[in-house]
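Exercise 7b. Backbone tokens:
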């Protein structure tokens, strides 16, 4: 396992490919390349001999040889982001030192190093091959010479699925329930917690001696990072299981609280009333300031409109009084009349009659 810090300061835990899987992937790629080289040689020296001389056939074969040895890994690793046929079969992949995908320049440097220094071309491979094997075994990321030159390393993509924890290690034992309520876990590192979890997952696969020794070491390391210390006589496996169970419950509680706060904020934002739309100003009216709403009181009417409204008309019409005189009309100086609100009948008891008051 290797910790890789990306350009965005994100720490990635990547599983470095093991040395046997890399050797086997290389052998598979070599077999594929030899088959292609045999085909190129057949075309160059058998079919081409009928139309080419010996020098031309040798040039064709040499060009095909370099194209296969260099072009095969470069093309495959560039298009598949770090995989050749052999690596694809073994579930491994080449990545950059920052955890990103392999680039064309890096694939070309790795291929040239493999051809001219480490494997194919004598006499350099006499020194390059042992040097590459030594650096692969000494380097923390299993880098060969080509990886050192290109800034890459090989990771394992097919990681075996972890076994689940036994039910006894997923809960706090009853005898540690009161102690777990006051447990302080802020100084417990992720690496220590991961080691304890791995130990508990393989607890029943270990022999008793190794189980006791590893359990005591991990329990001591965890006890140095938590407080208060466990009660005297607590088995290491029970102590580790209780610590991991409390850590898991608190992380889940924090996650639920965070999600609940986000949901509540979104719900309150959806229910928040929208501010009323501002009143739209009407068209400009003479004598009314611009941008204000004109007065909506009684509407002045002309004399002709007043006659129609008040029932004025020829004598004897329905708009006249009992003596034949027209209804009372207030005449304005500018020959306009104003019709006021209807008078409320006496003794009406305050009925509204369905009319809306102007104010």
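Sequence design result:
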């Amino acid at each position: 396992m290797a910790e890789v810090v990306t350009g965005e300061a994100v720490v990635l835990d990547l599983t470095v490919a093991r040395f046997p899987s890399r050797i086997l992937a290389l052998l598979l790629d070599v077999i594929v390349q030899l088959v292609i080289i045999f085909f190129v040689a057949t075309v160059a020296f058998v079919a081409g001999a009928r139309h080419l001389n010996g020098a031309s056939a040798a040039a064709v074969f040499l060009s095909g040889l370099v194209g296969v040895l260099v072009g095969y890994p470069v093309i495959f690793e560039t298009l598949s982001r770090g995989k050749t046929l052999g690596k694809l079969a073994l579930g491994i992949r080449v990545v950059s030192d920052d955890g990103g995908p392999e680039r064309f320049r890096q694939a070309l440097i790795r291929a040239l190093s493999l051809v001219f220094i480490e494997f194919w071309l004598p006499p350099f491979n006499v020194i390059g091959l042992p040097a590459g094997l030594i650096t692969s075994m000494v380097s923390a990321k299993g880098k060969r010479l080509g990886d050192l030159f290109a800034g890459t390393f090989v990771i394992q993509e097919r990681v075996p699925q972890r076994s689940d924890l036994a039910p006894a290690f997923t809960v706090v034992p009853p005898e540690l329930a009161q102690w777990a309520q006051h447990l302080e876990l802020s100084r417990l590192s992720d690496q220590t917690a991961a080691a304890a979890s791995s130990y508990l997952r393989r607890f029943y696969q270990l022999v008793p001696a190794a189980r006791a020794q590893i359990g005591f070491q991990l329990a001591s390391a965890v006890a140095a990072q938590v407080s208060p210390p466990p009660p005297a006589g607590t088995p290491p496996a029970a102590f580790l299981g209780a610590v991991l169970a409390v850590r898991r419950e608190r992380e889940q509680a924090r996650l639920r609280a965070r999600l609940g706060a986000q949901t509540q904020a979104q719900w309150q934002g959806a229910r928040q009333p929208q501010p009323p739309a501002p009143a739209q100003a009407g068209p400009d009216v003479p004598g009314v300031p611009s941008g204000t709403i004109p007065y909506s009181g009684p509407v002045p009417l002309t004399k002709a409109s007043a006659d129609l409204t008040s029932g004025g008309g020829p004598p004897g019409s329905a708009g006249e009084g009992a003596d034949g005189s027209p209804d009372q009309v207030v005449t304005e100086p500018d020959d306009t009349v104003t019709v006021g609100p209807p008078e409320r009948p006496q003794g009406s008891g305050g009925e509204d009659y369905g009319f809306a008051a102007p104010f």
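Instructor comment: The first helix runs from residue 19 to 47. The two ends are 82 Å apart (CA to CA).
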